[in-house]
Amino acid sequence: MNIGRRSLLTGGIAASSAFAGKNKTGRKAKPAAAGPGMQDLERICALPVLKREGLNSPVIIDSIRLLKKDKEYIVHVRSKDGAEGVSLTNPPRADFLGHILKELVIPVFTGKDARDLDNLLWELYRYESNYKMYGIALWSPQAWVEFAILDMLGRVANKPMGALVGDIVRHEVPIYVASGRRESTPEVEIAYLQKLVSQSGAKALKFRVGGRMSRNADAMPGRTDTLIPLVRKTFGDTFDIHADSNSSYDPPHAIKVGRMLEEIKAVYFEEPCEFDHLEETKAVADALTIPVAGGEQEFSEYRFRWMIANRGVDIVQPDLHYYGGMIRSMRVARMAAAAKMPTTVHISGGFGFVYMLHFASCVPDVGKYQEYKLGTEKYGSWFDGGITVKDGRMSIPRGPGVGIKDIRGLLQGAKEV
């Protein structure tokens, strides 16, 4: 008798739910929330995102180039009227995705009116059967071009990027600092977290549990079980703590770790199960009283709709590069808002935190904290007034577009790839 994956999965989730029960304090798992259905969310996604106020004349794209300066890849867009915009890519993707950018992405935009950006993204999806490649390899180059176009349009309209895709609701965000390490012992990791907090002034942190896509194995024996209570003991009861498993667990193991995180009152538990095992992640989210976050590896709008309609997670986390840019991510935020769920975007390094800031500037519910990767030292001086971190909060650039004050200076010495 053949037993299909669905039968196995259904049995596994049922076992996980039975395993869940109540936590050690006797609290019941959070109740299922009623919200918008799949068709409701589809209608939300169909609404345009780019706001045309202040963009009264066509902005015809004349050229888009991939440049390199030092170790940074820069996408430069120029209109026929001489308007310009730039974006910085997410490292190290441009090392191997530049060919996709030049052959399959740039041709869709050249000669087109940048104000039609919503529709152009759909045309890109269809161009040369790009939909057969969809995922991070396509969405990252799309995001690079979209960010550069939004920078250019912001300069034309004299508006910051957030005002092109929403209404500005804040000018700074609370931050947490994150450790990306698993090779450290609990004691060494605590010392490293203390250093990050001291350097940043953050009022919250995130650390990693499990072994990363490890089929329940810990990074080293006993690390997670020791580290979770030790973080709370070290930083005290008022400090906010997040944990990320990077797809380490099946549901029973994830729920066990989640119970420990409940005990220390964690802000959320990120990606407890393998990132594309949506039903398993939902089983964990249903079982725990703390929020479960996920979506950083997701590249399907339909699956985000499923996650939101079925409350597969409590916090959605599209990555602004991996998911294809600001416009697609704003659609996720709109869907999440309809379900009264936060959208806390994931950032994939380098200059990406700046795009996160602009996203957070115009999305009402971005969760309690945004990640700070201690990158303002390199990029902060590029902006009028800089980007400051003070008292656990980071300022959001207010200049037009992405806010870089001197594009000419940035491009000086850059070589076309």
Q: What would a concise description of this structure say?
A:
The protein is built from 15 helices and 13 strands. The protein has 417 residues and is α/β, with parallel strands linked by helices. The strands form two sheets. Strands 4, 5, 6, 7, 8, 9, 10, 11 and 12 form a nine-stranded mixed beta sheet that branches. The chain has a four-stranded antiparallel beta sheet with strand order 3-2-1-13.
Walk me through what this model shows.
- The protein is α/β, with parallel strands linked by helices and 417 residues long.
- The chain folds into two domains: 61-159 and 406-416, Enolase-like, N-terminal domain (Enolase-like, domain 1, 2-Layer Sandwich), CATH 3.30.390.10; 164-395, Alpha-Beta Barrel (TIM Barrel).
- It has helices at 5-20, 38-45, 94-109, 117-126, 136-157, 161-165, 186-200, 223-235, 251-263, 278-287, 301-309, 326-338, 352-362, 376-379, 407-411; strands at residues 61-69, 72-79, 84-88, 172-178, 204-208, 240-244, 268-270, 292-294, 315-316, 370-372, 389-390, 393-395, 415-416.
- Strands 4, 5, 6, 7, 8, 9, 10, 11 and 12 form a nine-stranded mixed sheet that branches. A four-stranded antiparallel sheet has the order 3-2-1-13.
- The N and C termini lie far apart (57 Å).
Topology:
Blueprint: H1 5-20, H2 38-45, E1 61-69, E2 72-79, E3 84-88, H3 94-109, H4 117-126, H5 136-157, H6 161-165, E4 172-178, H7 186-200, E5 204-208, H8 223-235, E6 240-244, H9 251-263, E7 268-270, H10 278-287, E8 292-294, H11 301-309, E9 315-316, H12 326-338, H13 352-362, E10 370-372, H14 376-379, E11 389-390, E12 393-395, H15 407-411, E13 415-416
Parallel strand pairs: 4-5, 4-10, 5-6, 6-7, 7-8, 8-9
Antiparallel strand pairs: 1-2, 1-13, 2-3, 4-12, 11-12
Helix pairs in contact: 1-9, 1-10, 3-5, 7-8, 8-9, 9-10, 11-12
